[in-house]
Design brief:
Blueprint (H helix, E strand, L loop, with lengths): L4 H4 L12 H13 L5 E4 L6 H13 L4 H4 E5 L7 H11 L8 H6 L6 E6 L6 H13 L4 E7 L7 H4 L3 E4 L5 H14 L6 H11 L3 H16 L6 H7 L4
Parallel strand pairs: 1-4, 1-5, 2-3, 3-4
Helix pairs in contact: 2-3, 5-7, 9-10, 9-11, 10-11
């Protein structure tokens, strides 16, 4: 089975992230010092929030330490306080594994773990309060990146402990460039009008646009005609 393009073409480094230069420049400075604050990423879906922190984590730890140093959770799966008491707290209190000499030569490997909490705006207020206390307790050995679409749904005591980074919808030129890059990499011949149609229906959500492009490519390969609106209905789950 073909790998989903959204994973295949996910940015590997901060420099690969499209159209969020203000945020990535600040994060690159933090990467150089390896002294991360707790972070709060917010903005519309498909603007690169999760991709950005995963790219940064790869540059911090390298592939060998990602599994032991980075925990990625989707808060929409478990909205209540149990996700904090169980998975987050248990990971936060774990001892840090020592990096190899090779890892230290190639990556900063700072002496803390990273917890990435996606869709945190779906967490209950009690769960967010518990998360704040956990952040305070384990701040020396764990950093948190809280990701949400709606920053107003994050309680102030939690948000105030994080450096905030706003992710904006990609401008049209950057989005077109990214989709053309993927199409060319996959040897798909596609005109700009169709790419613009895809972007229009996806309303700035690049993740959805990449998924839709992959669906469109299958039809193009089979030399079928495309009704873009009909295809959107069929792929509304993306």
């Amino acid at each position: 089975m073909d790998q989903p393009w959204i994973e295949k073409y996910r940015p590997k480094t901060l420099k690969d992230v499209s159209s969020q230069s203000t945020t990535t420049k600040i994060l690159e400075k933090s990467l150089n010092t390896a002294n991360l604050p707790h972070m709060l990423f917010y903005g519309p879906p498909g603007t690169g929030k999760t991709s950005t922190i995963l790219a940064m984590a790869r540059q911090l730890y390298g592939p060998n330490l990602m599994s032991s140093r980075v925990l990625e959770l989707n808060a929409s799966d478990e909205r209540g306080i149990s996700i904090v008491r169980d998975r987050i707290k248990n990971f936060a209190r774990l001892a840090i594994t020592n990096p190899s000499k090779e890892d230290l030569q190639n990556y900063p490997c700072p002496p803390y773990k990273l917890i990435i909490l996606d869709e945190a705006d779906s967490m209950t207020m009690d769960a967010q309060s518990a998360l704040r206390r956990t952040m305070e307790t384990y701040a020396k050995v764990t950093r948190f990146c809280i990701i949400c679409n709606y920053v107003t749904k994050i309680i102030d005591p939690l948000a105030s402990r994080c450096s905030k980074f706003r992710f904006r919808p990609l401008d049209e030129n950057s989005a077109i460039e990214r989709l053309n890059f993927i199409a060319n990499s996959e040897n798909i011949s596609i005109n700009n009008n169709l790419i613009i149609d895809i972007l229009n229906v996806c309303e700035g959500d690049l993740r959805r646009a990449v998924n839709l492009l992959q669906s469109v490519s299958t039809i193009l390969k089979n030399n079928q005609s495309i009704d873009i609106k009909d295809l959107i209905e069929k792929t509304s789950s993306f």
